Amino acid sequence: MNYARRTLLNSASFDGLGLHTGVPVKLNVHPGENGIAFRYGSSRTLATPENVTDTRRSTKLGEIGTVEHLMSALAGLEITDAEIELTAPEVPGMDGSAAPFVKGLLQVGLTVGQEIELPSLYSRIFLQELPLKIAVGKGTGHWRYEFETGERWPGSMHFESMNIIDSYQSEVAPARTFVLTEEFPMIEQFGLGKGLTKESVTILGDNGYENETRFFDEPARHKLLDMLGDLYLSGIPARFLNVVGTRNGHTANVKMAAMMFEATNAKKAGC
Which of 20, 69, 222, 250 is flagged as catalytic? Predict the structure, then answer.
């Protein structure tokens, strides 16, 4: 099974505030040749599971926080190589979704490089730490996320894409991050979400949404967006996978990405 490496024709620039820190940051995505790497100051960190340093509320690579929305955009556009340079240690929150990154990357253009062979994938890998579950296997880009809040509204909600690459730009990338109203005190206490506004977050009240949504099932779509970005740390193109996630967040996603990375690299080594 082969796939083509892909990078940018030119550099794409983004300005905004760190999603949690609220610190102004300029982010440049440059063409690359050897995987996806984040650069801040003198450090260069490859986007691999072993380099994840924190998964509380977001995914942190080395010193750089909240990489999941940008990683999701790279996965959705099937960009395999990029050098990402930041002026502050957190990716900008933009509008709370991956859509601005998708738009900016497409504006500078993409180029296709040499084809490489994808190692023969495992039949299926499971991660279960109830109530969360993730199942990943060789497939055709069929991705599903099951969002559940128990007795609290909305209870159960899911989003499913039969072809994640074809549907990504219109059905997944625009879905914004969300917050439950009871989480506001904790968010304020720990100084989170400073780079977001009421327009860049979906607010889930006790009995319904408290602001305008982009999709009726926006939380489920955003959780799939996050899962896509986190699992792309494995380096495996999304179109070759079938994935189902239930109640999983960044910690479980990164654990699964590590399992996928280990499985495919063991195949490469002939183990």
Answer: 250
2-120 carries CATH number 3.30.230.20: yes
Residue 230: per-residue pLDDT: 98
pLDDT, residue 270, reads 52
Q: Which pLDDT score is estimated for 271?
A: 45
DSSP string, the chain: -EEEEEEESS-EEEEEEBTTT--EEEEEEEE-SSSEEEEETTEEEESSGGGEEE-SSS-EETTBB--HHHHHHHHHTT---EEEEESSSB-B-TTSSSHHHHHHHHHH-EEEEEEEEPPPPPS-EEEEETTEEEEEEE-SS-EEEEEE-TTSTT-EEEEEESSHHHHIIIIITTPPPEEEGGGHHHHHHTT--TT--TTSSEEE-SSSBSS--SSTTHHHHHHHHHHHHHHGGG---GGGEEEEEES--HHHHHHHHHHHHHHHHHHHTT-
Look up 250 and say whether it is catalytic. yes
The pLDDT, as a whole number, for residue 219 is 98
Q: What is the mean pLDDT of each run of 10 residues along the chain (271 residues)?
A: 93 95 96 96 97 95 97 98 98 96 98 87 87 95 97 97 98 96 79 80 95 97 98 96 97 97 71 45
> Which residues, including other chains, have CB under 8 Å from residue 88's CB and lie 6 or more apart?
18, 21, 23, 24, 25, 40
Task: Report pLDDT for 268.
Answer: 57
